[in-house]
Amino acid sequence: MLNMKRSGGRPSLSFQVADAIRGQIEAGYYAPGDKLPTEPALIEKFGFSRTVIREAIAALRADGLVESRHGSGVFVIGPRQSDPGLRLFTEETSKISDIIEELELRIGIEVEAAALAAVRSSPAQEAEIQSQVNIFAGLVAEGRPTDEADFQFHMAIAAATNNARFRTFLEHIGRRMIPRVKFRTVMGGVDPLPSRDGPILDEHRKIAEAIMARDPDRAREAMRRHLVTGIKRYRSLTPWQIEQKEDESG
User: Residue 223, Cβ neighbours under 10 Å: how many?
Assistant: First the structure.
């Protein structure tokens, strides 16, 4: 790792930026092959100079996490030593079986997370869960992408368990835990299930309502139904439909 810490022990600005981006890569927010935001976007996001941003990118490049492609931008190529046990969530896939297996694993974790949130959530955490439902609803009404809102809804529930390990787990696997995010990547940007946002919004509302009602059994059932329904949605896709979507994207 390129050493950018100051001699006094306080991290330099470029170290802070590199560390933040490194954390997002390791959490799966950026997966191998993803393009990082442009230099101006990073300057605006972090509020630091162009020199700081360039030093941070140089450090990530030295660590083998990113590579610069002339005329195209900076792309993620790491982390090289990712945990093979969780790699399934971050790797691209067009296999329905992969999606179903990942959703089954999430059932084992998030169903109980919803129940714990119903028992332990604070008023502020409940407000955050409802806020994420409202954001999702607004995006659906405007016909805009809901990927990030979907992920943040599940993150809000994980935080509301007040068991940091639930949130850490979801942060580690990142937004590609949302099946359509990585499934769409291998299909050239074509969504295999373009009409599912309305039903998902309704499912999110029922989960949130159960948590607000402080009803753990109802929260468990609502989350289970949400994830099982997701399995059914992807199981309904046939290989022929997937091939057709891929042809449309080309």
Answer: 29
Residue 73: what are its φ and ψ, rounded to 5°?
125, -165
At residue 208, does pLDDT exceed 90?
Answer: yes
| 158-162, 170-174, 225-229, range with the lowest pLDDT | 170-174
Supply the DSSP string of 110-166, one letter for each residue: HHHHHHHHHHH--HHHHHHHHHHHHHHHHHHHHT---HHHHHHHHHHHHHHTT-HHH
Q: How far apart are CA 37 and CA 40, in angstroms?
A: 8
Residue 47 to residue 52: CA distance in whole angstroms = 10
Question: Residue 18 has which token pair?
Answer: 């590199």
| Cα–Cα–Cα angle for 70, 20, 33, rounded to 5 degrees | 40
Alpha helices per DSSP H over 13-95: 13-27, 39-46, 50-62, 87-90
